[in-house]
């Protein structure tokens, strides 16, 4: 073999060895990053699968009779609602509306809450077991809140007044 051929073969072999070494090094580095990303994905899936059932007040008789409907709550798109916002919806809208509807002889089947990143407001759609439907805007400068619409004052139960005195006072409840 000529000296030039040996030089070219040496260069090709060194290049191949360097390429294989680089590929193995990248593979090991990316394997750790991939494992980290998979763990993060698993953690997010776990958070998404957590129950969104609201805390509702039921009487002992309702619970025994099985007459309690726990509303389905959907936040859309889920990724734009942090835990603090979800807790605020639960405390200021979902639980009070559920108890108020129950006190009025109706039950809520579901809440569908949508967000608008542009306006900072939320559309709350409520479907009752009897088939009636309600929709309203909340958020923005007013904050996340709900007030019942009552003609001639609202007639709140004692349980509602104790649990949500601010709503009862602001709505002018009897």
Can you characterise this structure?
Helix content is 49%, strand content 16%. It is α+β, with helices and mostly antiparallel strands. The protein folds into 2 domains: 1-50; 60-170, Double Stranded RNA Binding Domain, CATH 3.30.160. Strands 1-2-3-4 form a 4-stranded mixed sheet, with helices on one face. Strand 1 (72-76), helix 3 and strand 2 (108-115) form a beta-alpha-beta unit. The model is unreliable at 51-65 (pLDDT under 50).
Low-confidence stretches: 51-65
General shape: rod-shaped
Q: Cα distance, first to last residue?
A: 106 Å
- By CATH, the architecture of the largest domain is named 2-Layer Sandwich
The tally of strands reads 4
Short descriptors:
174 residues; alpha+beta; Double Stranded RNA Binding Domain; four-stranded mixed beta sheet; 49% helix; 16% strand
What is the gist of this entry?
Helix content is 49%, strand content 16%. With 174 residues, the protein is an alpha+beta fold.
SSE topology sketch:
Layout: H1 3-49, H2 60-65, E1 72-76, H3 83-103, E2 108-115, E3 121-128, E4 133-139, H4 158-163, H5 165-170
Parallel strand pairs: 1-2
Antiparallel strand pairs: 2-3, 3-4
